């Protein structure tokens, strides 16, 4: 085996921010660099033989399971230590600023655990279905692989995504403000199929029945799901983006609850109970309830509303190429259906234009949008506004605060503003409404 | 009623002992409560030994660890303190969660009676019962939780979906001026990439309203 380059954290080299500061300090205004200019001297990267064009690269046995090239070492999950009391019941963030398309690489897809990421092998895995069913059942992992399979792509957004931004503009970067999200192609079994295997005749009228789902970890993360949703589109998944779930994402089996808050996507799923009442567990009373201005709180706010964010330019993705053609890109999604359009404003919401969707929006999945502009080097207040196929339009933070106040903690789907400055740097700001 | 598919005959019947080992959830009306009891007095000792290093001797919380008591009447404040006493609607959740998932790092190690005692002590710490109180499966539902009526079912369909619509989406001349009112850089709490230093701030704008970072994912 050769010396395979690996990385276990951010690269140590200069980063974009430091580069920009250096440029500004020496008076080399990047924005002043005009459109493409003629090259005076030949480029040695072309005129001189490069080593990689002469010698050989790595053999095919160098990395049986590869990691990204070392130069992409900053495209990693990050955590914000002050957000939680410790790193076991905590959160980290997907580097959405640096990604494109819609599929999230599993290795940098965010994590949220309440008692850490547990190691549960397939041989030790058991799934129980009990409660108001005809026959309570126990499945092994091998049993699950024999059920008819489905394959669907959905986003998972933590209910707390953007939650730190309710009272102001706090974190500087789309990774931190919007990165409690990932989007994967899942393979698994419809929950309906498993419930039918146990039999639901014993449950009687299903309209007022619930399923309680819990994980194998110490936190259990138990949540109550109304039977209507359970029989609709919920999946019991064991593959994501083509391969087994990652340990930190629930290996070997997790729940997929399309369009609904990430907390309900129970990982390391071990039990499904049919009940005639919601359990009102800790994760649906103390947590994942949304306090309004008058002190009352919403519960069972399951659906994630339509939302979007410009991922580049953004605070972690400064413009380094000067004036001229600029790709504005970002993500949009809705838990109520498919994204039907995205508007972009470069003037803080005074005027809006329609962005281009990379492809037609899919139900409850991330959608990529682009707006190609000719940047004149002046400051911009970049915003994006998602529309979904129910006719819902993403609100401003002021509109949300008008209804909810500032203490909801969860479900902040407000329009985000990036203040793009003349030097190409961006900052997370709020602007007047 | 939906029509159900043929069964595939996969899996096996769960045995009573297996269901008993995993089926521990307790409903808001006390469904599933085990037989047992525990006093405030015993709870104080058990709490001190198993819980107080994070949650404090009086359940008031240590450092950033959750506060289990206090905050009465603060839910409409700028910074509400949400605890068992001030916020949680059902006592069943306390018993269920403590028995299933606490102590943090050594969950499911306490007896049913211990959990009754700890629950009694948390009630006492919230001034909801006297110091001679004994909590049992029989009197469990008699305890009144102050915020039991503090929750409404998701009302976004009525309060939001009617407003945030295509009909109200503006495209031209949507506002006169755009002024920066909050800046994340002023707060400066974002983890920096290695090698990057805090940037000096020059532009005089209004200080971000969020004085302290909020706990977003407790």
TrEMBL record, chain A:
Question: Which molecular function terms from Gene Ontology are attached?
Answer: heme binding; molybdenum ion binding; molybdopterin cofactor binding; sulfite oxidase activity
Q: Which UniProt keywords apply?
A: Metal-binding, Molybdenum, Oxidoreductase
Outline the extent of the Moybdenum cofactor oxidoreductase dimerisation domain.
Answer: 299-417
| Any matching Pfam family | Mo-co_dimer
Q: Tell me which Gene Ontology terms the entry assigns under biological process.
A: sulfur compound metabolic process
Q: Which residue numbers delimit the Oxidoreductase molybdopterin-binding domain?
A: 119-280
InterPro entries per the UniProt record, alphabetical: Ig_E-set, MoCF_OxRdtse_dimer, Mopterin_OxRdtase_euk, OxRdtase_Mopterin-bd_dom, OxRdtase_Mopterin-bd_sf, Sulfite_DH_SoxC, TAT_signal
Instruction: Tell me which cofactor or cofactors this protein depends on.
Output: Mo-molybdopterin
Residues in coiled coil: none
Q: Where is the signal peptide?
A: none
In Swiss-Prot or TrEMBL terms, this protein is called Sulfur oxidation molybdopterin C protein
- Native organism: Celeribacter marinus
Higher taxonomy? Bacteria, Pseudomonadati, Pseudomonadota, Alphaproteobacteria, Rhodobacterales
């Amino acid at each position: 085996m050769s010396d395979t380059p690996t990385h276990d954290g951010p690269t140590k080299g200069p980063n974009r921010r430091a580069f920009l500061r250096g440029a500004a300090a020496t008076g080399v205004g990047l924005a002043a660099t005009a459109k493409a200019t003629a090259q005076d001297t030949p480029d040695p990267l072309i005129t001189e033989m490069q080593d990689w064009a002469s010698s050989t690269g790595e053999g095919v046995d160098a990395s049986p399971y590869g990691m990204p090239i070392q130069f992409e070492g900053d495209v990693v999950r990050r955590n914000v230590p002050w957000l939680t009391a410790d790193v076991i019941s905590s959160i980290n963030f997907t580097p959405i600023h640096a990604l494109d398309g819609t599929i999230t690489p599993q290795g940098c897809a965010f994590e949220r655990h309440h008692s850490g990421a547990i190691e549960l092998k397939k041989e030790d895995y058991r799934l129980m279905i009990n409660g108001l069913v005809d026959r309570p059942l126990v499945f092994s992992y091998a049993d699950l692989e024999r059920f008819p399979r489905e394959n669907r792509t959905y986003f998972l957004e933590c209910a707390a995504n953007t939650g730190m931004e309710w009272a102001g503009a706090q974190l500087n970067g789309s990774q931190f403000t919007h990165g409690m999200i990932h989007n994967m192609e899942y393979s698994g079994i419809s929950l309906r199929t498993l419930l039918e295997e146990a039999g639901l005749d014993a449950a009687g009228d299903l309209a007022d029945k619930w399923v309680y789902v819990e994980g194998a970890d110490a936190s259990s993360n138990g949540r109550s799901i109304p039977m209507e949703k359970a029989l609709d589109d919920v999946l019991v998944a064991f593959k994501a983006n083509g391969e087994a779930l990652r340990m930190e994402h629930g290996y070997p089996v997790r729940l997929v609850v399309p369009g609904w808050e990430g907390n309900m996507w129970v990982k390391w799923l071990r039990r499904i109970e049919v009940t005639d009442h919601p359990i009102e567990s800790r994760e649906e009373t103390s947590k994942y309830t949304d306090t309004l201005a008058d002190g009352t709180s919403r519960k069972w706010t399951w659906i994630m509303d339509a939302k979007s964010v410009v991922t580049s330019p953004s605070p972690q993705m400064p413009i380094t190429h000067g004036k001229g053609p600029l790709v504005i890109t970002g993500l949009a999604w809705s838990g109520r259906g498919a994204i039907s359009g995205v508007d972009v404003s470069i003037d803080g919401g005074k005027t809006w234009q329609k962005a281009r969707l990379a492809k037609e929006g899919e139900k409850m999945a991330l959608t990529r949008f682009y707006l190609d502009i000719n940047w004149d080097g002046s400051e911009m207040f970049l915003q994006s506004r998602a529309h979904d196929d129910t006719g819902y339009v993403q609100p401003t933070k002021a509109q949300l605060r008008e209804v909810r106040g500032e203490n909801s903690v969860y479900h902040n789907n407000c329009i985000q503003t990036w203040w793009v400055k003349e030097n190409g740097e961006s900052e997370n700001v709020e602007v007047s409404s | 009623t939906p029509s159900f598919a043929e069964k595939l005959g996969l899996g096996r019947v769960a045995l009573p002992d297996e269901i008993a080992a995993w089926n521990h959830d307790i409903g808001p009306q006390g469904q599933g409560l085990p037989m047992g009891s525990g006093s405030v007095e015993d709870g104080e000792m058990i709490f001190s030994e198993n819980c107080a290093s994070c949650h404090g001797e009086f359940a008031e919380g240590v450092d950033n660890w959750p506060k289990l008591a206090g905050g009465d009447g603060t839910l409409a404040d700028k910074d509400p303190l949400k605890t068992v006493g001030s916020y949680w609607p059902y006592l069943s959740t306390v018993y269920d969660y403590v028995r299933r998932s606490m102590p943090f790092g050594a969950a499911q190690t306490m007896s049913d009676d211990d959990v009754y005692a700890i629950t009694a002590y948390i009630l006492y710490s919230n001034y909801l019962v006297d110091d001679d109180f004994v909590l049992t499966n029989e009197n469990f539902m008699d305890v009144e939780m102050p915020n039991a009526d503090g929750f409404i079912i998701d009302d976004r369909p009525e309060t939001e979906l009617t407003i945030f619509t295509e009909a109200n989406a503006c495209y031209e001349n949507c506002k006169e001026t755009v002024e920066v009112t909050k800046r994340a850089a002023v707060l400066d709490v974002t983890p920096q990439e290695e090698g990057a230093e805090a940037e000096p701030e020059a532009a005089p704008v209004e200080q971000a309203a969020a004085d302290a970072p909020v706990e977003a994912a407790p």
